[in-house]
Structure formats: C-alpha cells, structure tokens
Amino acid sequence: MSEPGIIQVQVNGKEREIQSGLSVHQLVESFDLDPKLIVVELNREILSRDQFDDVQISEGDAVELVHFVGGG
Fold first, then answer.
1. Hey, which of 29, 62, 65, 72 has its CA 20 to 30 A from 11?
2. pTM of the model
3. Is the sign of the CA dihedral 4, 60, 42, 14 positive or negative?
4. Is the separation of the CB atoms in 68 and 39 below 8 Å?
5. Contact, 38 vs 65, CB < 8 A?
6. Which domains, and CATH codes, for the chain?
7. What is the pLDDT tens value at each position of the chain, 72 positions in all?
C-alpha cells in the first residue's frame, strides 16, 4: 500500500510512485526534462503543451514521455 499523498502510475512502461496532485508539467520537470522538448501521451491520448499545467496525473494513469534530441 502506498504512503498518503503518493500514487502509483506507469511512466514509459514502468511502475512509479509519485506525489499526488502533480500536473503533467510538474511531472515532466521532476524528471529534469524540458517541457518544450517533450511530447506527453496520457492514457493513450497525446496532450498539447498548453494542457500540461491544467491536467493532473491520477492514480493508475499511464504516461509516455517522448524527449526530442536535436542533432545534425
């Protein structure tokens, strides 16, 4: 059983415990990723960047974080 305030989610296919009440933006930043360089899929639905602050992560959510890397 999880601690109070902690929820179970799946991030990139792995079970994780995170603080409850996190927005998508806060979750991305907790992984030291730049939200401007990330595509987020939440429960098989791609979110637009303008949703990152408004959408909260909930118990049991499946999140895929795709990080773009530039190069040449």
1. 72
2. 0.86
3. positive
4. yes
5. yes
6. 6-66 (3.10.20.30)
7. 556 799 999 999 999 999 999 999 999 999 999 999 999 999 999 999 999 999 999 999 999 999 877 666
